[in-house]
Amino acid sequence: MITTRANIEELTTLPGELQELTTRVVRQTRLWRRERRDVQAELESHFREGLIELQQDGLTLEQCIKVLKEQFGDEVVLAKLIRRGKKRGRPMIYKVFVYTMAVTFGGAGSLGGLVWWRAQGEPNPTVDYVARLNEPILAIPEEQRAWPLLREAILQVEPMPKVLQELSALPAPDDQEWSMAESWVAQNKEALDLVRQAVQRPRYGYLYDWQSSLEYRIEDARRRGDETDRQELEFQLAELKTERNELRPLISLVLPSLRSYRDIARMYILDSRRCADHENWSQAWQELESSCHLGGLLLQGKTLIEQLVGAAILNLTLSEMVQLQQAHDAEFTDEAWLQIHNTKLWISAIQIETVIDFEQMTFEDVVQFVFTDDGQDNGHLLPKQYDEMVNAFSQTAPDGSGDSGWSHEAKLATMAAMHADRKSTLATYYQLWSEIARYRELPLYDAQRAEADRVLDQFKNDPEKQIRFAMVCNLMPSLGRADQLLRELEMNLAAMNTIIALQEFRRQAGAYPVMLSELLPDYLDALPEDVYSGQPLKYEMTEAGDFKLYSVWRNLQDDSGSSVKMNEPDSPNDPEDWVYWPVHD
Q: What angle is formed at CA 287 by the lines to CA 488 and CA 299, rounded to 5 degrees?
């Protein structure tokens, strides 16, 4: 009997043995369900075709099944070949999609795991940097420290009247506001006397301590009548007393009210003007000397802000000293000149050194509070700790703070997962610090100094650095401006000494010297250097027998002692030259 194709195709199912073989092969292919159905259909079609051909050759059904099974081969190998063929035959866009999704979800899963791991842990601060900062101060005998008396004096100071605060310059005896200024100084006489005693002590001696500093600031806020500030400080003090961890970061230190120091300096200047108005020259100079000593003490502070306030007080007072000499030099008594001569000796002893230890110690301290520590100076950044430190340092939240709470937390956690480890962060900070310091140490007239800001800006503006070294970007200070101001102060002090030396020369010789070099070595140990040229300050004799002393200043050009404002957008208030003598109103 001959079996036709039509007869075979009418069969709805294959013989049981072939059906079972087909099912086993399909199960082992491990393809998508749709693809497995296709493979099933192809295998069934293959067996039907084989049955037709073999039966047409005269074989029985049992013989056909046996032959087909023998020809089919190893079912496991065949399943692998089918699976491989199917994958290779898929469209390219499908392959790209599948691989992309696999990489995406795999990467997201890995990143999620990393983010979760990086968010775990607690900091383990071990170094008390505050104790290290205070160690040399505690070695100073109590009777040599000015701060205890300064603290007592500041808490007695009556705040400066608002009318005087709004003036562009301190009033003189012939001004309308003078009576108010005079009354304010009289109200603070006891405080000024106490400061006068304090500044005679050789060392500043301020101890950097949270509790005593907060207690002082609370009393100061109460003195000023600032209830909002007082309540906030009291809240901070209460929190401090409930904290278990004895170590606290340097970054959260509370400094004394530096505004009070400025007010005291202004009072001394006003009192000096009062004394001069009554021709009490010795007392007038003594008041200015006390203000200078106050500024000099602040230069001993361990923080840059204290130094800069000290520099501002010194610059203000030095300018007043020059004006007093220019206006009343001929009237000074021998006693007054002896005081002026002693001031020159004191000014020569001032040493100005930009504080960098505090900045570096602060960064190291923040790192130990923001990173975990594996005991080998390594660890990962903790997002919540980082967020708190950035807020404490800048008083502003980091980028992303405007997002919802969850979004902000997610960004912080992701940033922490991608941030460099503790060891790399410290190494990068000091490498960048060293590179910037090389340029910052150059003279002010060297154009390469600008490279310090460029290097720092380039680092902070690098998108990769903003994530991988966010700690460095947020806490690396730009000290270029501070260094410039302190170098200018050195020049201002040298100019003051030179003016005193010129006056002493004239008192002895009857006229000013033709050249500054004539002051050496009897009146000056060295010529005053112009930090903007590297040469001595410019000195010229006038036709009237007076002199002109000036610096070429920030435009680095000698404009013949011109006090005209620079015509430059970056320096709208800077004169072309800085003239020390004669003083112009």
A: 35
